[in-house]
Amino acid sequence: MTARVVLGVSGASGAALALDCARALHAAGAEVELVLSAMAERTLALEIGPAARDELVALAARVHPVIDLGAAIASGSFPVAGMIVAPCSMRSLAAIAHGLDDNLLTRAAGVQLKERRPLILLAREAPLTLAHLHNMTAVTEMGAVVLPPVPAFYLRPVTVAEITAQIAARAVDLLHLGPPIAQAWTPETKGNAT
Ligand SMILES: Cc1cc2nc3c(=O)[nH]c(=O)nc-3n(C[C@H](O)[C@H](O)[C@H](O)COP(=O)(O)O)c2cc1C
Predict the structure, then answer these.
(1) What catalytic activity is recorded (predicted)?
(2) Which atom of ligand 1 sits closest to the CA of residue 132?
(3) pTM higher than 0.70
(4) Residues with beta carbon inside 6 Å of ligand 1?
(5) Tens of pLDDT, residues 92-135
(6) Which of 39, 47, 142, 155 is the 20 to 30 Å CA partner of 115?
(7) Domain 4-173 is in which class?
């Protein structure tokens, strides 16, 4: 059976991560159930351009309005392999950490937690307040994985696209849909002196 994965996109910086996650999920053969917050629509346009939303939507099997709390992904009875929130804002993180389920993105994330399914949060802010750190602890205690979108410096990336593609690949690998797709570190990795 084809894996369905919910991809939530919130309004943190790093909209390129959403596109790279969608590309990686699509390439892995997963059906993407896409939900974008209102601020995600804005950051996609701001950081990438006016065509970014359409490109993202083209990679999705279904797109769900963030206000549609009656969508299939709002229910634990709808089988999905897990969810990635890329990028995950501190607002969405806080809502997930406190079980607010106040829109379809945070509701779908809460569903993953209650159903004990993988939930990967590419939580992005800098610097972090104690509230952000408490919320990261809370979601981790509930079983989510906080994957801050920081570069894999050890792979010596040259472009931002290399950085975001590697982070997205690591996020998809955490769902364990198939063989790993992220570039793995080996002592022979490019440019390594010894
Ligand atoms: C250009 C831009 C960049 C932003 N970057 C971040 C960020 O990195 N992290 C964050 O938590 N919020 C960031 N925000 C603020 C969020 O968009 C805002 O808190 C919003 O309420 C998040 O709502 P959402 O979680 O429903 O998308 C940014 C906003 C803009 C306009």
Answers:
(1) dimethylallyl phosphate + FMNH2 = prenylated FMNH2 + phosphate
(2) 11
(3) yes
(4) 10-13, 37, 39-40, 42-43, 46, 89-92, 124-125
(5) 999 999 999 999 999 999 999 999 999 999 999 999 999 999 99
(6) 39
(7) alpha beta
